[in-house]
Amino acid sequence: MLGGLNFQVEHHLFPRISHIHYPALNAIVKDTCREFNITYKEFPTLRQALFSHIVYLKHIGRQ
């Protein structure tokens, strides 16, 4: 229904790869981030993602 919204990082890193491969790519990207000490930020639920987005919009609205 949301078109792979939970795999936005993978979508932007590999825009031409079919969405059916995103779960496998997700594991690879997370492992690579760990290897290079890069924070991989994700929100496991839609509610958490929307809340984070609202907080972000408020933050940039104050600048």
Integer average pLDDT: 91
* Envelope shape: globular
- Measured as a percent range, the helix fraction is 55-70%
Radius of gyration: 14 Å
Give the amount of beta strand, in percent: under 5%
Structure classification:
mainly alpha
Strand count, sense and barrel status of the largest sheet are: none
Describe the structure.
The radius of gyration is 14 Å and the shape is globular. It is an all-alpha fold and 63 residues long. The N and C termini lie far apart (34 Å). The chain contains 3 helices and no strands. It has one domain (5-62). The chain has helices spanning 8-13, 22-35, 46-62.
Short synopsis of the structure:
With 63 residues, the chain is an all-alpha fold. It contains 3 helices and no strands.
SSE topology sketch:
Layout: H1 8-13, H2 22-35, H3 46-62
Search tags:
63 residues, mainly alpha, 3 helices, 59% helix, globular
